[in-house]
Design brief:
single chain, 128 residues, alpha/beta, Transcription Regulator spoIIAA, 4 helices, 39% helix, 22% strand
């Protein structure tokens, strides 16, 4: 499997982890289809943690991913049950991407970037 998805038991959050084999063109429809029911059936807003630590991200994937998750119809990052999006990666480009998602061009996504999953989880727990 090129991704794993879990709803956290101790916080109102979901965690999508992408593996190094994740391919945006091939796997995004599957990962989006897995995330959507969790969001649709949530009893309230969730923090969406996207762990990209092991994913291979190039500029093209970064741009396509931002467009698919925030600009296309039915985009995940604008789902009514998304409180906030947290990107996890030590890749500086993804930290800049989180800032870019906050712009009007991407619909002002409430997004933050963290270098480690532990940092992101600490943040989520501090917000609960």
């Amino acid at each position: 499997m090129t991704f794993s998805l879990q709803q956290l038991a101790d916080a109102p959050a979901i965690l999508l982890t992408l593996s190094s084999e994740y391919d945006l063109q091939r796997d995004f429809p599957k990962s989006h289809a897995a995330v959507k029911p969790l969001l649709d059936n949530a009893s309230g807003p969730l923090t969406y943690i996207l762990d990209l630590t092991d994913a291979t991200i190039d500029l093209e994937m970064l741009i396509q991913g931002a467009n698919k998750t925030s600009r296309e119809a039915g985009s995940t990052f604008h789902h009514p049950n998304i409180r906030e999006v947290l990107l996890v990666s030590n890749n500086a480009a993804l930290h800049y991407a989180a800032q870019g998602l906050q712009s009007a061009a991407f619909g002002n996504v409430k997004a933050k970037a963290f270098s480690t999953l532990d940092e992101a989880l600490d943040y989520v727990h501090s917000q609960s």
